[in-house]
Design goal:
single chain, alpha+beta, 2 strands, 9% strand
C-alpha cells in the first residue's frame, strides 16, 4: 500500500521476535501452520510483503528492552519453541 501512495522505499521493522509457535498458555495465537514466520525465512517474508528491508527484534533484544537480560521468569516459547512444560502440539 505504501508503494501505491508513492513511497520510494519500504523498510519494515517488527518490535518483537518472529512468532514461530502457538501459545498454549492463554494467548489466542494460531496454529504453527498459520504463523508465517514458522514456515518462511525473513527474506521470504520480506519478498511476500514487498518491502525493501525487513527486520525483527531479537530474543536477546526483547529481554534487554524489558530489563531482563537472561529471560528468567518470562516465557518465550512462541519465539523459540522452548516450552516450559511438555505440551501436546498441533501443527
Amino acid at each position: 500500500m505504501s508503494r501505491y501512495a508513492g513511497a520510494k522505499e519500504v523498510n519494515m521493522r517488527i518490535a518483537s521476535p518472529p512468532v514461530t509457535g502457538p501459545c498454549y498458555y492463554g494467548i489466542d495465537t494460531p496454529t504453527r501452520k498459520e504463523l508465517v514466520a514458522s514456515s518462511y525465512s525473513v527474506e521470504e517474508v520480506r519478498q511476500y510483503i514487498n518491502a525493501d528491508t525487513l527486520s525483527y527484534l531479537s530474543v536477546p533484544g526483547l529481554y534487554k528492552a524489558v530489563n531482563n537480560g537472561d529471560g528468567n521468569g518470562h516465557c518465550d516459547a512462541c519465539f523459540t519453541g522452548n516450552y516450559p512444560e511438555n505440551v501436546q502440539t498441533k501443527t
